[in-house]
Every structure is written in C-alpha cells, then in structure tokens.
Amino acid sequence: MRPIVFVHGTRTSSAIWRHQLDALTRSGHPTIALDLPGHGARAHERFTLDGAIRAIDDAVATFAVPPLLVGLSLGGYASLAYAGRHEHKLAGVVLAGCSTEIKGKPLRAYRDASGALTRALRIGGGTWHVVTDMLTAMAGYSPLTDLRRLRLPVWVVNGRRDILRLDERRYLTARPGTRLHVVRRAGHDVNSHAPVAFNRVLLDALHELRLPSTRALLPAL
Questions:
Q1: Is the pTM of this model over 0.85?
Q2: Residue 165: closest CA among 80, 71, 102
Q3: Looking at the domain assignment, is residue 125 inside a domain?
C-alpha cells in the first residue's frame, strides 16, 4: 500500500492530521505526520525552509517506496519546495490551503508588523516568532516556479472560504494536469473543517497512483 507523509501549517503540529491518520491507517496505508522546526516536538528550534525540507526528507526516507506527500498551508509550500528538489522520491503531492504567491510588499509588511507587535505586547505564548521566521523564510520563494517544473501528479485542495485561494487558477495553468478540489463549507483548515471530504480526495489520489497511466496523463512541458 502507498505510504503517506503529512506536513502541517504554521503554529500547529502533526496533531492536526488525526482524522487523516485514523482513516488512512484503517485503509492499510502506512502514515507519518511530522513536526516542522518551530512546531510541536520541535518547538525549541527556529523555522527555516531548508530545515523544513530536511524534516520532510527524513520522513520520506522511512519508507521503502515513494510516498504521497500531503501539506497544508505552510506545510503545503514546504511540500512543494521539497518536491521541486526531490521529485524522484515522491509518488505525488497534495497541496492544501496554499494557492497564493506569498511574496512582495504585502509579505514584508506583515512580517515587520507581526514582529513589532510580538515584541511590544509579548503575545503568541512564546511561539509567535515562528510566524516571522516563516515569512522571512518564504519571502524569496515562488511556489509557481516549482510547480511549473514538476512531472509528478499534483492535487490542489482548498476550502471554498479560504482566503489563500487567490492564485488557484494560476496553479492550474502552471502545472497542466493538476487536479483541483474546492470543498464546500470549509475554510483554510480544510482537513479539519471537512475531514470526510478531504479524506475522500486522498483516497481517490491513492487509487490513481495505483494506475500505471497516472504519469502519462500529465502533459510534457
């Protein structure tokens, strides 16, 4: 059975994937939900994109066959960056809640404002620094650049109410053959807001990966 690696979003942890781990394990698929640097069991570390990619690589390496990589929000961007560097180690990638280019002046303004607010009000329970670390790490990253060069199967999953759907159609144009699923009555945390619908997308993706023609469906660049 195809294994699966799950990568969480900012200021959460591997715990967000409980519904998915339960469902996929019952279906016989080996699963790992990792903690990114600065989160969960690794909260004492500082987040960097390279550190996130190493964490994903360690999880992927535990399996004897290429897994399906599933990332939400920051985990989606990190998963796409990983796929851009290590596509040969993966069977496919599911990108949830990460269909926006996070770069330019809006990102820099948010990074600076969040850092100033953290220092002034001492908010965030000691972990708000991970937001500024994330924004700093992602400032020079273009998900569309990695998406354009991928040859492996890609699924994009967004909640209909998610504000990070701004570049959804650009994602489909960047990687012809990408499958898009928009989940009704769900927001950014689509895997938690609509776990049954999200799990169905994963199971369908895993079924597709069993078909020998899956990669042939993706047009050459």
A1: yes
A2: 102
A3: no
